[in-house]
Amino acid sequence: MIARSRLCPLLAASVGALLLSAADAPATAAPHIYTIVIDKLKFGPAPAQLHKGDTILWVNNDLFRHTATAADHSFDVDLMPGKAGKTVLTKSGSIPFFCRYHPNMRGVLQVK
Ligand SMILES: [Cu+2]
Hints:
This protein is an alpha+beta fold. It contains one helix and eight strands. It has a single domain, classed as Cupredoxins -  blue copper proteins (Immunoglobulin-like), CATH 2.60.40. The strands form two sheets. The chain has a four-stranded mixed beta sheet, with no helix packed on it. Strands 5-4-7-8 form a four-stranded antiparallel beta sheet, with no helix packed on it. β1 and β2 (42-43) form a beta hairpin. Copper (II) ion is lined by residues 64, 66, 99, 101-102, 105.
């Protein structure tokens, strides 16, 4: 029993290693989660290589309330200061987004 319980952390570590290597695999791999940080009234850079099914985690590190709002209204995430929210990308194409409170805050997601 003792030997078996010591094996578990090893098993967990190798599963973790498998998951990590899967995250490096291209297009056909499982959906990814990407983070876009908002700070000082700016969106951080949009990740390259986005695909349908991927998730954007919007993290508001700013002192102000922001939104991440798609120009085509396919998503609209309200972000209080210090909070985060998620968008699952459900369609491909070029998706401009902005903040409803600060229309100068803009970016574009390129989804394949
Ligand atoms: Cu804003």
